[in-house]
Amino acid sequence: MNTVFKQRTCDLLGWSNEIFDEIFAEKPFRAIRVNPLKANFNTVQSNFNFELKNTPFYKDSYYIPKDFEGVGNLPLHHAGGFYVQEPSASSVLAVIDAKSGEKILDLCAAPGGKSTGIAAGLNGEGLLWSNEFVRSRASVLLSNIERMGISNAVVSSLSADYLCNALEGFFDAVVVDAPCSGEGMWRHNDQVEKQWSEEYVLKCARLQKEILLSAANAVRCGGRLIYSTCTFAKEENEDNVAWFLENNSDFTLEKINADFGIKGLSGNAEIDDKVRRIIPINGGEGHFVALFRKKGEAIALNFCFEENISKESKRIVTEFLNDNFNELPEGILFEKNNLIYLAPINAPQIKGDILRYGLLVGEMRKNRLEPAHALFAAANVKPKRILNLPLDDERVYKFLKGEEIYTDGENGYTAVWVEGVSLGFGKCSNSRLTNRYPKGLRILK
């Protein structure tokens, strides 16, 4: 154990060396968050042979045993019925309190825990913009957005400065779950100790200030800015809150009315009474969250996504969708590099590395549309042909392994569901369903 980190933590939290050693010898807390876009609690509970108990941090967050293995291979995880998320991280979702129809930017979004939780609050209405500057992490973010069935999201890999200037004053809420020294994940990730130093803490604090300044530009008047980290370090938490208020007179700090965690530890009551900290004795690994409000009257900035698709492609796509779906999310058809998207109506169009505008419908190949996995995994679509399998059906795992399965359904593209939760699709012909579950998502054993 790093002795400098140990001493800093004991001094900050008022622990003895013995208490520190006892706490850090324990295994980390683990939890899942039910995704109400695709599943309810009872459906998710049926996937486990133990009782799911609610965490104190968020209504849809539930503890799982610390030694439980294989959660990522469970069918309802593949189907996006739940998301594996460190319990205290879900506290930020309670503070965001996303409402249907809002426009929310998650600025440092990978791997997607906050974004997918925000989308659940939006409930298919409004706009989620999920951004991750590191391109490789943005790809993971996109995969989770698709798995959780989200169709009203834009996923990008842009610098915070560029994105927030391009969309100045547009969002009802901006979330900065900032890159940090990760002290709250010390028990969870061996890499935290390897990279940690006091110099690294200060480096993170400087980067967080830069991101916060950029994020402030994208918040509309009357909107909110949520700042969070998964570290204990005061330099990255309360000190950054004080610095931001000193340098942004158009924002105020709002009190977070929550039962979880403890108040701040800066010694400044004006800040400490309004922010929340979570430490291991609170039932989570470690998190900090603050809520700012931008002064002024709200001014609505509305955009309308412009349809951009050839007449022939539109004809082919429209015929395919009418033949295969009874219901689809509202959106505007958009074609780029032979890929067809159903873009959110109110999404701004800006230049840069945009991985996804809304729902990927499929790819144009000569005179036909090859449908995308994301289309059949989306929460708010109703395919005309559905193979709904119970959890104990052997075909569920066969499908997840990429194998052909049988069905007595009619020929054509068919959605595969498990316990009513959309998993993927295949093409049925003569009682055999050709598997279209993406190779990168399949179970290997």
Folded structure, characterized:
This protein is α+β, with helices and mostly antiparallel strands. The chain has helices spanning 3-13, 17-24, 41-45, 75-78, 91-96, 113-122, 135-147, 160-166, 190-195, 198-218, 238-247, 269-272, 311-324, 373-377, 394-400, and strands at 30-34, 53-54, 61-64, 82-84, 103-106, 127-131, 153-156, 171-177, 219-229, 251-254, 276-278, 287-294, 325-327, 332-336, 339-343, 354-357, 359-365, 368-371, 382-383, 386-389, 405-406, 412-418, 421-429, 432-435. Strands 5, 6, 7, 8, 9, 10, 11, 12 and 16 form a 9-stranded mixed beta sheet that branches. Helix 8 (160-166) runs parallel beside helix 10 (198-218). The longest helix is centred in the middle third of the chain and has 21 residues, at 198-218. The chain is globular. The two termini are 36 Å apart.
Helix share, percent? 25-40%
Low-confidence stretches: none
Average the pLDDT over all residues and give the rounded result: 95
Major sheet, described briefly? Answer: 9 strands, mixed
For the secondary structure, the number of strands is: 24
Shape: globular
Taken as a percent bin, the fraction of beta residues is 25-35%
Please report the distance between the alpha carbons of the first and last residues: 36 Å
Computed structural class:
alpha+beta
Radius of gyration: 23 Å
Number of helices: 15
Summarize the structure.
This protein has helices at 3-13, 17-24, 41-45, 75-78, 91-96, 113-122, 135-147, 160-166, 190-195, 198-218, 238-247, 269-272, 311-324, 373-377, 394-400; strands at residues 30-34, 53-54, 61-64, 82-84, 103-106, 127-131, 153-156, 171-177, 219-229, 251-254, 276-278, 287-294, 325-327, 332-336, 339-343, 354-357, 359-365, 368-371, 382-383, 386-389, 405-406, 412-418, 421-429, 432-435. It is an alpha+beta fold and 445 residues long.
